[in-house]
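Minutes, project check-in
Item: structure for the 153-residue chain
Input as provided by the requester:
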Amino acid sequence: MGPVEIYHERQVEALAPWRFEGITLKVYGLLARGKTLSDEMLEAGRGFVENTVLPAVEIEGNSNGLGFAIVHPGDLGLSISGHWWSQGSVLCQRFLRQPYDAATPLDTTTRPVIGCVWELDIINAETAFWRKAMMTLDPDPEAYVGQRVREGD
């Protein structure tokens, strides 16, 4: 059996959405104990979205123009994920994992990672928000953007 980690709540910060041409992403900071979310981390997150996620949205097509990003300074490294909704019910993702002691990010094209248990809490909440606000007879994008995971949720 591999390593097992003790579960401790992580601080969740709901930040201002990032708005780009054609897509709005809710932004979350997710902090391990003793970690802070620096301006540099947020800049890295926004850069990852602009350089990796937005081109993927374009290539994938059928975007619903909404999604979310998670900037997660964890115990061992910084994780950044960008998620977007496509085809009305499909959640797409691009993921970056940069260990603190490594010069380059891990190759996420060959790692079958969806996210850690703390990121999955946000992903699960976001799928519920999507169903409630958007998968109805009267979809409400502003209601979706307004629903946010808060610390303790």
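Outcome recorded: The chain has one domain: 11-146.
No further action items on this chain.
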